[in-house]
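Technical note accompanying the year-one report. For the benefit of new consortium partners, we illustrate the data format agreed upon in the data management plan: each record pairs a sequence with a structure-token string. No post-processing was applied to the example shown here.
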Amino acid sequence: MNPIRPFRIGILLSLFTLLFGFGLGIFFGAAEDRMKAGLKRSGEAALESVYDGDKAAMEKVVAKSWVYYKRAHLHANGLGTTSLAIILLLALLPAGLTRCRVWTATASGLGALGYSIYWLLAGMRAPSIGSTHDAKESLDWLAIPSSGLCLLGLIAAVVIVAIALFRKDAAEPE
């Protein structure tokens, strides 16, 4: 049996996260000006209704939105790589705690993808509502569970690895 097959969902989620991060990087290189212009158009459409005509306030939110796009890219690459490494480590452990390892792998991959998407959505939403803070708050439904899955996945992985490394039946003969 293939030892990584049980971890396929977590692995695929981690790879999708990396694809998302690399894809954003490609879009940055190929269409950065168009992406920034799209954010500006979104802000300008709300200039009177949301910003009360304050162009400087709108430009500040648009600039911060671009920072959120970059944050999405960085989180996707960092969390995608981290979750993939955690999952492969879990797959390499000796038999035991299989369900727990599989759930941990899935949580890690799902959290990585969800949290990366959260930053992109916050950046997309902010110019039209006039606040990066409000954009983030409106996406708490995504940010809190996905960041929680990342953290729980890491904590569970630490516990599972510690159990595998220090349990008596895993000790090498002296």
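Partners are asked to follow this layout when depositing records. The chain has one domain: 5-166.
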